[in-house]
């Protein structure tokens, strides 16, 4: 049984970046010839690609978990790690991508359109890349950052010019098979069509696509039957063709009542903001199965009433192909008019590259936790990324992180926020790295290490005079004499005895 899926949630995990390498080059007569650790490779991205050859999201419904490869770690001799391969996921044209919050990330309306939905992690720098004139042989490297992990939702909305709507077994699949090269499933029972079918129709010099939507029933807008699940595929169509079964034997049904039911369901279906409501789009009526004498008589009877409502009516027969030529030409005219009325594509916007404002800070510092449990949270792309890249088992790497944060101005920001030595600092959100802040002397926080108006680094450093050295010597001699006298008094009192005398006894 054919299965069609037009909504799916993907669980994506992009590749992690590889760690940098710590290595020292060794040559003959040069045991320590300098650092030569290579950089780690970047993690692979996950990219969605609009592919005309893909028509369903079924493959992702069966295996929604997708991940790209990790970047390889760097190696010695200046060899960088291999970056992870980009994972390309083909999706049908017309797929709308949503994030976890429901915001639209992309609308894949053009063939070949590419969207990076899960960027890979950044590879860490090796010690060769971290070497400077002041740090000629770093004993550490940066770690790779993790790739993006999360969920994205895919929703397929078929892109077609004309949508065929009607009750089950009205002949929509037979019609699309008769006017195009499409080969949908056709049978003599309801709900034969379980998936939207697309067909390309050429009428004169006009070429357009037709979508066969699964049959609608009364209450489809409320979730009955299969119609509601596929009404979203009608959103992008320029015109609607009502296919009405004139040979139905079901009690209580006739062409007029069938059309009224379909119109009510289309009216209740909410279209996205900015799109034309379904009933305000061009609509034609095809009275099908007129090859049956009773159906032909009924079609002739209701044509006048339908034309009074403003519809263009076409009696057709998919079996004998009666009226199909006139119908396709009429649809071509409607599509051509809709395309002409469509607003012209806006001119390509000029891309303006503006530098960041000089006063824009790359981080924020905020006090949290109240008076009793106050701590200071630092948020920003750079500080949070630097923390992830730091190997906290390496003291030199921790010192490098402190230097980077101080250069960025984090310590000055903490001092202005009210932090003092020993304050708890969290870099990142929930689960971020927690520190006990020890300000460096190069920051404005040096002021809190001594009394106001003084500087602990500036103090008296004069040499002691001869008299000061003599007084210090006499004080030490007096202290030694007092200690010897105390020991002698304890011995006489019997608190302890000499070992030599005990041996003699």
Automatic annotation (TrEMBL):
* Residue ranges occupied by any OBG-type G domain in the UniProt entry: 160-336
Domain Obg, first and last residues per copy: 2-159
The record's section on PROSITE patterns has: G_OBG, GTP1_OBG, OBG, OCT
Residues engaged in binding GTP: 166-173, 191-195, 212-215, 288-291, 317-319
UniProt cross-references to InterPro entries, sorted A to Z: G_OBG, GTP-bd, GTP-bd_Obg/CgtA, GTP-bd_prot_GTP1/OBG_C_sf, GTP1-OBG_CS, GTP1_OBG_dom, GTP1_OBG_dom_sf, OBG_GTPase
The Swiss-Prot or TrEMBL record lists the needed cofactor(s) as: Mg(2+)
Q: EC?
A: 3.6.5.-
Question: What does the UniProt entry say about where the protein is found?
Answer: Cytoplasm
Recite the UniProt keywords alphabetically: Cytoplasm, GTP-binding, Hydrolase, Magnesium, Metal-binding, Nucleotide-binding
Q: Decide whether keyword Glycoprotein is in the record.
A: no
Q: Which domain of life is it from?
A: Bacteria
| Region of interest: Disordered | 452-505
Q: Which Pfam families match?
A: DUF1967, GTP1_OBG, MMR_HSR1
Main EC class of this protein?
A: hydrolase
Ranges of Basic and acidic residues composition bias in the record: 465-491
Locate the OCT domain: which residues? 355-439
Amino-acid positions noted as binding Mg(2+) in the UniProt annotation, renumbered to this chain: 173, 193
Which purpose does this protein serve, as stated in its record?
A: An essential GTPase which binds GTP, GDP and possibly (p)ppGpp with moderate affinity, with high nucleotide exchange rates and a fairly low GTP hydrolysis rate. Plays a role in control of the cell cycle, stress response, ribosome biogenesis and in those bacteria that undergo differentiation, in morphogenesis control.
Q: How does it assemble?
A: Monomer.
Stored NCBIfam families? Obg_CgtA, Obg_CgtA_exten, PRK12296.1, PRK12297.1, PRK12299.1
Family statement: Belongs to the TRAFAC class OBG-HflX-like GTPase superfamily. OBG GTPase family.
Q: What is this protein called?
A: GTPase Obg
């Amino acid at each position: 049984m054919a299965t069609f899926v037009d909504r799916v949630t993907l669980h994506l995990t992009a590749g992690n970046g590889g760690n940098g390498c710590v290595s020292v080059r060794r040559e003959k007569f040069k045991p320590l010839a300098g650092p030569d650790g290579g950089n780690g490779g970047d993690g692979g991205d996950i990219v969605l690609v609009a592919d005309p050859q893909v028509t369903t999201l079924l493959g992702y419904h069966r295996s929604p978990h997708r991940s790209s490869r990790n970047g390889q770690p760097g190696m010695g001799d200046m060899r960088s790690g291999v970056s992870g391969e980009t994972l390309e996921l083909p999706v049908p044209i017309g797929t709308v991508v949503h994030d976890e919050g429901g915001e639209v990330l992309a609308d894949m309306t053009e063939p070949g359109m590419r969207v990076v939905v899960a960027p890979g992690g950044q590879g860490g720098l090796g010690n060769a890349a971290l070497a400077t004139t002041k740090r000629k042989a770093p004993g550490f490297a940066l770690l790779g950052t993790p790739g993006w992990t999360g969920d994205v939702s895919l929703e397929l909305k078929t892109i077609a010019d004309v949508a065929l709507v009607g009750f089950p077994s009205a002949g929509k699949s037979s019609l699309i098979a008769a006017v195009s090269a499409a080969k949908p499933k056709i049978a003599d029972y309801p709900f034969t069509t379980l998936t939207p079918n697309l067909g390309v129709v050429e009428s004169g010099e006009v070429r357009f696509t037709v979508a066969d939507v699964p049959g609608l029933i009364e209450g489809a807008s409320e979730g009955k039957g299969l119609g509601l699940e596929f009404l979203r595929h009608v959103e992008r169509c320029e015109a609607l063709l009502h296919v009405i079964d004139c040979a139905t034997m079901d009690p209580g049904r006739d062409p007029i009542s069938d059309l009224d039911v379909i119109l009510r369901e289309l009216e209740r279906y909410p279209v996205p903001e900015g799109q034309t409501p379904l009933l305000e789009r061009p609509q034609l009526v095809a009275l099908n199965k007129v090859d049956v004498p009773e159906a032909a008589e009924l079609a002739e009877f209701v044509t006048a009433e339908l034309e009074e409502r403003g519809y263009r009516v076409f009696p057709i027969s998919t079996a004998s192909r009666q009226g199909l030529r006139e119908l396709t030409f009429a649809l071509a005219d409607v599509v051509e008019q809709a395309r002409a009325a469509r607003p012209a594509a806006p001119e390509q916007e000029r891309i303006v590259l503006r530098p960041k404002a000089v006063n824009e800070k790359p981080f924020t510092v905020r006090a949290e936790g109240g008076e009793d449990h106050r701590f200071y949270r630092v948020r920003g792309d750079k500080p949070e990324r630097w923390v992830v890249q730091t190997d906290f088992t390496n003291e030199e790497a921790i010192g490098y992180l402190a230097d980077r944060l101080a250069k960025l101005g984090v310590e000055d920001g903490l001092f202005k926020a009210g932090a003092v030595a020993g304050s708890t600092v969290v870099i990142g959100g929930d689960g971020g790295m927690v520190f006990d802040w020890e300000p460096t002397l190069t920051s404005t926080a040096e002021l809190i290490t001594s009394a106001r108006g003084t500087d602990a680094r500036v103090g008296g450093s004069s040499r002691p005079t001869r008299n000061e050295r003599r007084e210090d010597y006499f004080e030490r001699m007096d202290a030694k004499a007092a200690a010897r006298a105390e020991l002698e008094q304890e011995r006489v009192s019997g608190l302890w005895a000499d070992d030599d005398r005990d041996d003699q006894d």
